[in-house]
Design goal:
Length: 313
């Protein structure tokens, strides 16, 4: 048991550090090519914070642990809103951008509906994976065009460079290796723990694995809140949820089609959707678009209840 727990802990630590330094190395590298902060945020940072979920899902699919692939994404989407965002709001209540309500949330709702429909037959095929990836490309294009329209004065990054190009490349390579190895041992550890405790891989993936792969977002959000940096917004969390479905499940299904018992995840999909609806309600009234601390407390309470019910079932 101790070895299994050490595997899980080691995998999570490697994923957190790997994601953190992949973002750091990537951002440093882009400074040499005069790439705008907007493009950096939409590509390098998004890839870095979502890399743990991607590698865990791919590794799980290749090892015939489909429940971990699906559970990881659904669990991460729930944790992003009801744990990560809730904790951030409790520390620092925030104002929601118009773009979040007019564009980001509706796209997330469409992604959730697509996932639900594609899961009805108990599998995610390569064709459905390709549809997800095509949707991802469309989403990125829409986001960039909208952001450029709203931020016409976006300037290329002129920040101080902390790494040379060779060092930045080395950091990216080492981080990528750490992410791959961390994902591998986390999946192995999660599967072994499920067998030892006679708990389903679905439960382990939605709880331990999902929280583990969401730690980069959780850490970044809490640190930003403590520093009173409002750049970490609701839109970033919603964007991560969209990426989890379109990019992670899309890429995973293309590499290795996923088969699973759809009924196992029906209630989890309902919870994921219900939390998304509550998030939208918390944006109201529209003219204020301010999420108060008590709404964060409610979200966090919902997550705790969900976790309790998950293990009691």
């Amino acid at each position: 048991m101790l070895i299994v727990l050490l595997k899980i802990l080691g995998g999570i630590i490697l994923l957190v550090l790997g994601g953190k330094y992949l973002v750091k190395g990537g951002v440093e590298l882009t400074k040499y090519f005069n790439i705008s902060k907007l493009v950096v945020g939409m590509t390098v940072v998004a890839l870095g914070t979502s890399a743990p979920e991607l590698l865990v899902s791919v590794q799980a699919a290749l090892k015939d642990a489909a429940a971990i692939s699906i559970g990881n994404v659904i669990g991460s989407n729930i944790a992003n809103v009801a744990l990560v965002l809730a904790a951030t709001i409790i520390i620092l209540p925030m104002t929601v951008k118009k773009q979040t309500i007019k564009l980001d949330w509706p796209i997330m709702a469409v992604a959730f509906i697509m996932l639900f429909v594609f899961m009805l037959d108990g599998q995610l095929t390569r064709l459905e994976g390709l549809i997800f990836i095509a949707s991802l490309i469309a989403y990125i294009i829409i986001e960039i065009r909208y952001s450029l329209k709203e931020n016409k004065d976006t300037e290329p990054s002129e920040e101080k460079k902390e790494y040379s190009i060779p060092i930045a490349l080395l950091v990216i390579i080492i981080s990528s290796v750490g992410l791959a190895y961390g994902a591998n041992i986390l999946v192995d550890g999660a599967s072994e723990l499920a067998r030892l405790l006679e708990i389903s891989e679905r439960v382990i993936s939605i709880s331990i694995v999902a929280v583990g792969t969401s730690l980069p977002e959780l850490t970044a959000s809490i640190v930003a809140a403590l520093k009173k940096e409002t750049d970490i917004s609701v839109g970033n969390i919603i964007g991560s949820n969209i990426l989890n479905i379109f990019a992670i499940l899309g890429a995973t299904a293309i590499i290795s089609p996923i088969s699973f018992n759809q009924s196992d995840f029906f209630l989890d999909l309902i919870w994921m959707s219900a939390i998304a609806v509550f998030l939208f309600i918390s944006f109201l009234p529209y003219n204020k678009r301010f999420i108060h601390r008590f709404k964060g407390v409610i979200l966090l309470s919902v997550y705790v209840i969900y976790m309790i019910l998950l293990f009691l079932k």
